[in-house]
Design goal:
571 residues; 56% helix
Amino acid sequence: MASFSDMMNITSKFGLIVLSLLILLRCLRSMLRERYEPEIWAYIRAGKERLPVSHWENILGRGRGADVRVLGPRVGRVHAVLTRNDHGQWTIYDVFSRGGVWVDDDRVPPSGLPVYDGARIILGETLIRFQELGPEKREKLEKKRTSAGRRVSPALTLLDLTAFQLFLLLQHALSAAPEHLPRIALGFLSLVVLEWTCFNLMRVIGRSGFEVETLAFYLSSLGMSVAASSTPEDMLKQVLLTVAAVLLFLLTGWWLRSLKRSAGMRIPIGVAALGLLAVNVAFSDAVLGARNWLSFGGYSFQPSELVKAAYVYVGAATLDHLYRKRNLFGFIVFSAVCVIALALIGDFGTALIFFVTFLVISFLRSGSIATVFLAVTGAGLAGFLAVSARPYIAQRFATWGHAWEDIYDAGYQQTRAMSAAAAGGLVGKGAGAGWLKEVFAANTDMVFAMVCEEQGLIVGLCMVGALLVLAFFAVRSARNSRSAFHAIAACATMSMLLTQLALNVFGSLDLLPFTGVTFPFVSRGGSSLLACWSMMAYLKGADNRRDASFAVQPGERVKDAPAPEPEEVEE
């Protein structure tokens, strides 16, 4: 007859599976099934048509990809760009069009011209009129939009997550040593308090969207479980790092509320990122061929993880260059320096992640396939040189697909990871009951296999699914996001995290070369956790649903400027 502890263990295993699927499905339904109505900031009158202006950076032209499609004589595919700043002031720029752009009989110079309500705009030979919406009209339209969380209650989803965390705590209580149990309980209970505090804070400021945070807390809960299994003596440190990561997420979201401030700080942030990498190159010590850790005051951190968030920020904060200047030279140089620094410290897994993110940002900023092709060609050459210059990298490529041929040396970690993942089956052995945690880097580079061993394949796949849901959400949100900055940052963030996910999962299972990168939110490591949470603010900024995001200003911040009297337009 099964004992009480056995019954509790079995109940918690199936409870974790059911709750994981429920959390994932509820977030998926809320994020991808709800209506996405775009914000409307102004209208363009072209003949009898009234075309909505739904972004802060809008392409005007006859091309199908234009945000405001204007058909007429001498109108180019990408003819002009109409932008709005934080203060509600509109400016139009000529994008090297053949027909030119005029505003009230003044030709638009390269520096742009202000556009006011009722202004006449001529694209080539086609006359259109700009009609700005005032605060009252915008408020009426805003009330018609669907609020975030209307279809699926975020509070109920968070209750499911709380139950998931309590089941994890129960499993650890059944397997952990008595001296470690108070620390483990502190970790999970602190996580519950933190997520509900964050949820109530969003309600106080009138925000109803909480799916991004819920999925991030779900992954962080699995990360807390990994820490409790592998290093229970450091649970207080894990708690403090999680609190710091969530605070950084809130701070980053607040910072992004001003696009002018965000764009203006890209150079200082870029310089700080390069400086951090330079310190890493100069003072780090080599560990297993890589020098990607710095020690300070008894603590160690990984600069390349912190630079990830800065890299996305610098790549996206290009509002004064987007569309009008297709020259990516500055960003290419910045990217090249980052990748070279990562190559010098031997962190080629992170270098690959940066390169994939560079491709995404470059394409979103320029729309040029040629730029992407040249970058891929250059990366292929650099990769060949890296494999030739670094013997341990060549060894990892040689081991790829042949891990079982050398289970005591080159394939030691991967064969143990695959064995442990298979041993966990569908429901797992239970939190803290696995043996993979005793293998070096199990809680970082092979964390997917460790979770599969302890929680089972189904929870492991839900862990992957949580990031996939965030990726689909980022793509969908980018189409309707208020600013190109938010769209690029969200897509770049998820390309970075998905590349990291693929390298971690497939590398530990010998489906890709073993690169030693972390699984977002789950792998143990404070630097990675801080970077992942801070980049979640980029996803919140792209969330354009009503009352969804705290990373954008909810209302109007219009500074009334004297506008010329609009002239009558001959229809």
